[in-house]
Every structure is written in C-alpha cells, then in structure tokens.
Amino acid sequence: xxxxxxxxxxxxxxxxxxxxxxxxxxxxxxxxxxxxxxxxxxxxxxxxxxxxxxxxxxxxxxxxxxxxxxxxxxxxxxxxxxxxxxxxxxxxxxxxxxxxxxxxxxxxxxxxxxxxxxxxxxxxxxxxxxxxxxxxxxxxxxxxxxxxxxxxxxxxxxxxxxxxxxxxxxxxxxxxxxxxxxxxxxxxxxxxxxxxxxxxxxxxxxxxxxxxxxxxxxxxxxxxxxxxxxxxxxxxxxxxxxxxxxxxxxxxxxxxxxxxxxxxxxxxxxxxxxxxxxxxxxxxxxxxxxxxxxxxxxxxxxxxxxxxxxxxxxxxxxxxxxxxxxxxxxxxxxxxxxxxxxxxxxxxxxxxxxxxxxxxxxxxxxxxxxxxxxxxxxxxxxxxxxxxxxxxxxxxxxxxxxxxxxxxxxxxxxxxxxxxxxxxxxxxxxxxxxx
Length: 435
Prior knowledge:
It contains 13 helices and 18 strands. By secondary structure, it is of the alpha/beta class. β14 and β15 form a beta hairpin. α2 runs antiparallel to α10 (309-325) and α11 (327-340) runs parallel beside α13 (413-432). It starts with 8 loop residues before the first strand and ends with a helix.
C-alpha cells in the first residue's frame, strides 16, 4: 500500500465505473473477471430485491431454501455430462477446497467399501506448473506461482507438479502441432509413477488465468480426461475463471467435450453480484458418500453462507439472462472485435504474444520479440501500462508484464473497440519512453 494510488468507486452502470472524483472508467477486468451482464442490470437488481422480501439467509446445514434448490437443478441442467450433485460455498478458493476434500474422502471410502484394513494411499494431487486455484491453504498448496506460494511453504502440502502447457514458450524441439502430445506425455509419465497415491489431477481448463493467461494446446484437456480414466485418478477442473461464457462456451470443458469428476465454479456464477461458488460432482463421487448417518460417510465440511438465498436469486437471474439473450453465442464474434482493435500493436517489437480464449485476452510485453526475453521484473512495465490505460479511461490490471483484458460479456462493439484502442495507446506511449 506504500505506493498505491487509491481508486474508490462511487457508482457503476453497464460496463462503466464512476470514481468518487468523477472519472468514468470502462471496467476492463469485469470487476476481477466476474461481471457478466454489466452493473446495475435491472433484472438482476429486481431478482435480488424480490428475494430480499422473502428471506435473505438461512443455513443449508440441516435445511435448504427453495431458491437454492432451484439453482442446483439449473446448474445440473447446464454443466457438462452427468455432473449432478452440487455443494455450495462462498468463493472459488472454498469451492476448490471442498473438491480436494471430496476427492480424498472418496478414495478413503472406496477403500473401506472393499474391506481394506488400511487407509487409502491416494492422498496426493497432481497440479500444473504456474497453477493458481485460490488463496486458502489447500488451494495455495496446489499453486505454482511463487508470489502466492513460496512464502507459505511451511504450512502447505506438496503436490506432484506437472508441466506448464504453454503454447507461446514451447520447450526446445517442440512445435505447435506436437505440443499437445508433448505435454500429455509428460503428464502420463507422472501418472504412471504416482497414480497409486494420487487422489486427483487438478487443472484450469484451456487457460491458466493468474499465470498470465497461459493458453494450452488444443486437445490437452481431453487427453488429460483420458489419462485420468486410464490410471484411475479423479479429474478436478477449476472453472472459477473460465466458466459462464468467458471462453465462448458456457464452460471451457464444452470446447473438448470433457466431463470432469468434480467441477469447481465461482466468479460469474452470480453474474458478479454476490459471493457464491459451487462444487459439482458426478454420481459415482456422490454415491461414495451415501449411507446411514451411523456410517459417518458424510462430508464433514460446510459454510455458513453456502447456498445463500440472495446469491442464489442472483445466479438464477443470471442464467435466465444467458438464455434470453443467447449471450454465449455472441462471445466468439465479440472476441474478434476486441482482437481486431489491437491490430495496431500486433507487430510492435515489444509485444511478444497476444493470447487467450473468448473474452480473456492477455498481451505479453517482452524486451526482445524474437528471443521472447522478458523485461526485468523490477521495471514494472505491465503495471505502468495499466496505470496509463486507467488515466485514458479503461481500468485494466496486469499479471506481471501481461496486460489483461477481461471485460463484461455484455460489452458492445464500440466499448470493446474503446478498450482495445485505449490499451494499445497505453502500450505505445509507455514503451516509447524506453526509446
């Protein structure tokens, strides 16, 4: 906070924020990747107000709310394959924590069902390099980004660490057309060695967000699904960032026809209005927990505000808007509009890569375009570009020297062109100062 210039928001409408000083800013990061339908959408507001007149909160431990039950049914109807049982929590990190505990307990109870006299050895997880799954302890344990992970090493567990399936910086000798096979082979090697102790593979699908919008080779997600089946390891997919239309499908898994054993959802689930997350499991996972109360098979895990009725009402209103507006079907075209607005910097000598899926776009700044050599981190060029873009009217945030644009899904063509041209100008001006 020592060098932070505080921006305080007084009001917001649509895709625009207004600060307490009167500056109008385009919300280029969708209020941390979660705003879907814009701010102050009348249908979203009305749904929350209506629910507020019914009940604002009850516990889902020992009872439920009708609105939350309805949301569970709606989620089951749109999630991939036979995902059919929903556990609610309050944020993406908590949703991942629930998934980790489900997976470990699943194998413990599978072993007990076979009459095993010792606990299941499947108590570890495989996570990708540069992974990010949240900031709570279990989620941090999975993480592979040093600023989120390194300091806390004394209090976290150690996963089996997989590769970073980057499509930009490929390993020596690997070509774009062989990248999927290369990374899948690396993951298979680890599964061959560790499958007996692995409860689950945990991964972000298609795009690793906090790593810098690292984009995976097409087909890798489906290959990992096949490998998990072959080596009898659960597959946990973290769609907290990629879910609810962000990549051009309702869920990133839909691009490759993948149904994970456990799916983690958050961020856009309520359209960005209220905190909520969901961990959705397939029947075989759920059934491992079924039994009489005396058998103690239940998941001993719960959240005070899990399934909160106000959040559930917002989520249902958001799903209704998806259906009414066919919003997901528009994302690929909108993504082209945003990317075309960046054409002026496509060949800039310090723009190394422009990547992402759907309305997730990252621009990586590099010192040398040909060698892909990064700038020294202490120069904070990504931060300086974002500060300049904010001065010009577009609020964006960096991930190191990757300038990230993740606007609300409802942004229109003019707004997307404004975002792209503003960020392009900011990049040109800041990099011009380098000489």
